[in-house]
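Q: Aryl-alcohol dehydrogenase-like predicted oxidoreductase, please. Structure only.
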Amino acid sequence: MTTSQTTTQREITHDTPPAERLVLGAMMFGTAIDEATSFAVLDRFVDAGGRWIDTADCYAFWASESGYGGQSEELLGRWFAARPGVRDRILLATKFGAEPRDAANWPASRTGLSAAAITSQITGSLRRLGTDHVDLAWGHMEDRSVPIEETADACAALVSDGVTARIGLSNHPAWRVERARQHAVGQDKEPFSMVQHAYSYLQPRPGTLMGNHRFGRLSDELVDLAAVEGLDIWAYTPLLSGAYDNPTKQIPEVFDHPGSSRRLAVLDDVAAQVGASRGQVVLAWLAARGIRPMLGGSKVHQLDAAVDAMELELPAELLERMNGVDVTPPSA
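A: Structure for Aryl-alcohol dehydrogenase-like predicted oxidoreductase:
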């Protein structure tokens, strides 16, 4: 049995420093976010005590001139080179499996999660990042063309080879996460111990497809699996791309139902009581549930607001109010 299998526990505790509860997402660094701004955000994150930075080999193919990714990892590699010693101060995560093979035919044509593809992709990521290891490697997007057991074995090998310390799955259904974990445990190999999905205070209408991932939304089943098995949960798009607080951005249509109206009313009241913005309350609510929010902000002031949110401790009665709001739309 591996060490992580015998000591698995949730990462966020009451004693976790505020900035360490946050993940800085580097998705648009090097494409939509220029280098100077990216460096400024990264520097402020580290200065604030932040540690986790998340990227992927496919970031951001849809915003690049070539139609292929790698720009985010390359920018991070240049930042590491320009900041001697900073690599040792942060925890670095990257993902593989969603990079286009044919930019004109994505998502049908992508690198996937076969053993050979994983080895090739992580090698490319390390080269672009200018490092010999990452602290966390994610299977980015499920690949039904490959047995999940093959993916589990290939990712476990990354740990045994010293390429990464931990492994996780993003945008995978709960049953495949658990099948992969049970396979690894049965083979006395490193199991997946983390999941990454879209999650926020507002919940979309049931059965609504969000983005390109059929199982991209964090489900109650995954939350339950994580609680029972001690998995860590990372939540992307927790602020709905700024729609909670930016009047120029609309809350996505998939959240348009009476349950959202009830939740927004409570969110407004809680925000007024604690003297914070809607988005800050959402981040604090996630952290209080042991979920690590991922910030994709493009400006230093957005990062500062998120770090302040991690210092916000919501009183138990307010958390109970937020959790108690029915989000289920009425039956037709």
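A: Brief note, in case it's useful. Confidence is low (pLDDT under 50) at residues 1-10.
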